[in-house]
Amino acid sequence: MGMGGAGGGGWQSRRSRRRGGGAVMAEINVTPMVDVMLVLLIIFMVAAPMLTVGVPIDLPQSEAKSVDQDKEPLVISINAEGKTFLGDSEIDPNELVPKLQAIAKAGYDERIFVRADKTVNYGTVVKVMGRLSGAGFKRVALVSDIEQGS
């Protein structure tokens, strides 16, 4: 009459069937996770060379150690043709100081990094740095690549 009666099994037989063939796996299948990680690795390996800072420039090499950075500094770049860039946008050298002063008043970090292609005339770099110094910016640094081997 009832569920677990003399009828041969009822509830207990169903329960034991569930445990036997279709038991819940307690293991984690890592194969899909490894597949996703490998795809991400390939994507980042392809995308990393495209993530250059600002204007592509062939920097000179130096033995100086790298500077620790906690905030993103302002970056002025001078490419091989002598064009001046503030960040990624080209700017007239005469407009450089007023734009930087406006940015500094907005509370941005006052450190300025000057990146210049190694083929640029030294006078062009000195002219830009002189304008920055004359405008009162005292934390100006030149950016270079680390020298490989001696």
UniProtKB/TrEMBL annotation:
Coiled coil: none annotated. It is found in: Cell membrane. Its main location: membrane. The keyword Cell division applies. The chain crosses the membrane at residues 36-57. It is a single-pass membrane protein; Single-pass type II membrane protein. InterPro entries: ExbD, Tol-Pal_TolR. Keywords: Cell cycle, Cell division, Cell inner membrane, Cell membrane, Membrane, Protein transport, Transmembrane, Transmembrane helix, Transport. The keyword Cell cycle applies. Belongs to the ExbD/TolR family. This is Protein TolR. It comes from Ancylobacter crimeensis. The gene is tolR.
